[in-house]
Predict the structure.
Amino acid sequence: MNRKTTPHLADSVAETLFIPLSMRARETGRPDAIVRDPLAVELTRRIDYDFSQFKHDNMSLTGVAVRTRYLDERTDAFILCHERPVAVFLGCGLDTRLKRLKHAGRAVCYELDLPEVIAFRERLLPPNDHDRYIASSMFDTAWMDELRTRHAGQPFVFVCEGVAMYFDIGKVKDFVCQLAARFPGSELYLERSSRMMVNKAKMHSSVKHTKAQFKSGMDDPHEPETWAGNIRLTGEFYYSEHARRRWGLAGVFMRLVPTLRHSFGIWSYRFL
């Protein structure tokens, strides 16, 4: 019998990578699956971690499935519509998006996360010439400068999923502005939570099992447009408005209350 891989993650935010991995694995086994990720199932079997603590969180199960399908589709669309595209997945954790994308082969792809996460990822999912890893904080501008030089003039799509809400709004603002200054003509998909969710991680059925905290939230999708003159909102996506049958009565209630309906979602931006 193969020994399981034991994670050694000191960062509290890093541990949250097990939540979407668990949800994608669970979702794959459903007959009405919104997204299927067989590799996620395999990874949960190979990792020495208590995934059972997330098994009752059906809200996150649907939320992760909805956001995963949406970001897969949007990334594929960007790659298909641009010449020599570059895709950067921020806070990648153990996501397996490249296995799910239909057009990944047309792009240069980078997976970025903290050094300890990338070291763990490399043990389970070794990088290759197509799927390249960056061991860095997303707030470190050195990787931005390196990619801008390496891919001068090429269009970028940045996918920031399951990360921003764990950091102060000042850091999020600076990060977005740094990207906007370096990558004109590129796009950003930013998952965010509402201000109502700040400091409420212990009310989240899965995040409460980690030491992570929700530290920032935004209610106005146009707020980032005030951060720099070349940032433009291009779309809003809120989880409870999609796959409505899966949300059940809880979803009906959420959609009736704007603060709940918009509590988690993805805003998309273009850098002019």
User: Anything to note?
Assistant: The chain has a mean pLDDT of 94. Strands lie at 86-90, 108-113, 131-135, 156-160, 187-193, 231-238, 264-271. The first strand starts at residue 86 and ends at 90.
